[in-house]
Amino acid sequence: RTDARTPSFSCMLYSLKTTYQVQVRGDVVKFKVKRRVVVADQYRRPTRNAQPSVSTSASGQQLSSTPQMPQIYGKQWPELIRGKHGVEIVSDHDQDNGHIRFSVVLGEPRTITVLVKNCGTQVVTLQRFQPRHQSQELSFTDEQGAAQGQSLLLHPGGTYPIQVRCLTTCNGHFSAVVFFEFTKEPDEPFSISRYVAAIAEGQLAKDLGPSAPFQPYEASLQRLVTVITEEGIPPDSSQKNELEREIPLGTYQYPKSLKDTILLGPNASASSSWAAMRSLLEAPLQAENYLQKFQLLLHLEEIQMEVDIRRYDMQDVTMVQERGLFVLKVPGVAEKRPSVLRGDHLFAHLSSERDHSPLIQYKGYVHSVELEKVRLGFSSKLQKKFVNNLKFDVTFTFSRLPLQVQHRALVLAMRHGLFSLLFPSASCHKSLFPGPFQPRWFNRKLEANEEQRRAVTHIVTGMSRPAPYLIFGPPGTGKTVTMVEAIKQVWTCFKDARILACAPSNSATDLLCQRLINDIAPRNVYRLIASSRDYREVPADIMPCCNWDDEQSSYVYPSKESLKRYRIIITTLVTAGRLVSANFPPGYFSHIFIDECGHAVEPESVVAIAGLLAPMDQETNPNGGQLVLAGDPKQLGPVLTSPLAIQHGLGTSLLERLMLHNPLYKKSSGGFDPQFITKLLWNYR
């Protein structure tokens, strides 16, 4: 301001806001800063100066499966195809990079013409042309026998035609590299080459053909981009959330130095950081390095997830504006390729500005997902700029929430000293059940199955405590049935028992709920579902006992006191993090059951334990809680992306680690110790 009046803070804030330099949310003012975007791929190092190879059919259709010319010509190819001394090789079917391609129909011969043209001012002699690496379906002919070595003169402005014929009864690509050899006095001999290919493809190949030119996604990852982000409009948070958040959830960002270490690689001059990382990764997992090692593994996984999500980047796509939202078509979203949920966000920028620096990108929040369409909330700035058929480049992201709750779980596990659960060494041999256990079985089939009866008995009596009790076996042997029976027996035998039942996926968690409410009144069971889940996917029979509210048409999250009315709470492992945030009193949950534990990474299982279960201690907590894990370590484990994380144990579940490395769970000459572990043998499928 140049006049005498000094602007107030609110005036300055208003100006910054209206010029889109800050975003104001409540008491928080967020400045829009430039940041550089770079990702680090742990699988391969990009080849320097590598150019994407693009193959195109005669119709202009991209052919990702087209074989390239023999690799022996790779570095020499630009020089081989260059016109020299005014001589050019041309065809109506020319493509980029010295390629000549034409399509053929099965059983019908097709002939095209390749012209040798002398565009110079002096006579040139064509000594011969020679096809190499020639498919038998291709044949080359000419009038004066140049193919057989008969030389001929090309006068200035003259042309010489060569016929290329293809006849095939099979679909495929039929090719040859053709060398045209010339002399011109008094210069040295010279040659010009072309890659000629005939393409026969059926309708299926055309239907499955790519919709855009292929470009290795790695090629775009190494370009440093400075971006300015325009904040979008998140979906309405109309859900009723009374569940306390007494324990904060940190961001747990990975250190920038770790990404630099991966980018530089093991052979860099400053490889001490790589050596330190490898030293921690290769060290055996133990209580002393538990937090540091798993944090490093999760950081490595996140860094690779940043790379892999870029596979789904879209270029030159259009959106439709409907009632203040933008509708984007995302092929594959229904199959979770990529996984997009309500509340997630993605970034879009104008295709015409992709090479700008700084790049202005718009953050769009997902309001809903409908088959292959995603409805997005972008800033008013983009809404004002939008016109129909405006083209965008779209970059997807992933939710960091699962990573954050896993990091916090590791910290809480160390803070609460859960080593007797994570690295058990013995049992206290104290039963929770007075006298002999003589149950009334809910599932009468268990009466005939000794292994299942024995597992339920040991779980109810709690004789393994503080060590977890493990149930494993091949598919179809009744692991979930055994766990459900054990939950019902604990619920029946201990009127003060508080049970948390979890599984990695919604489907597995729904199954637990469905089996439990067959014998336990729904008023005693509460299925807590994450807000990102589409309510239409929730099975109808568990709707009465879940947190979907029909009147509000949204999920609700009752307060801690309200949840205490239910003796059994069922959630996925990640959603159990909400219960951790609510800070239930120590020892509130007497039993925690994790089904399909083999499908979860260990930190994910710890989410449902750390901060929720107080392990048994003979002196300080003699009635401590019981942890039960069920699964099959031989089935597919968790889905991971980082090769370093996979190699160094993140793919090993808590169930599998205990079975592999803990003496309590190892098989001896007399079999497994039933006090700690049961292998189910009878197959019911």
From TrEMBL:
Principal place of residence: cytoplasm
Domain (Helicase MOV-10 helical): give its ranges: 249-311
Gene Ontology cellular-component annotations = P-body
Stretches assigned to the DNA2/NAM7 helicase helicase domain: 448-528, 560-642
Question: What sequence ranges are listed for the domain Helicase MOV-10 Ig-like?
Answer: 77-198
Report domain Helicase MOV-10 N-terminal positions.
1-31
* Location in the cell: Cytoplasm, P-body
What this protein is called in its record is SDE3 helicase
Q: Which organism is it from?
A: Horornis vulcanius
Query: What does UniProt list as this organism's lineage?
Result: Eukaryota, Metazoa, Chordata, Craniata, Vertebrata
Gene name, per UniProt, is Sde3
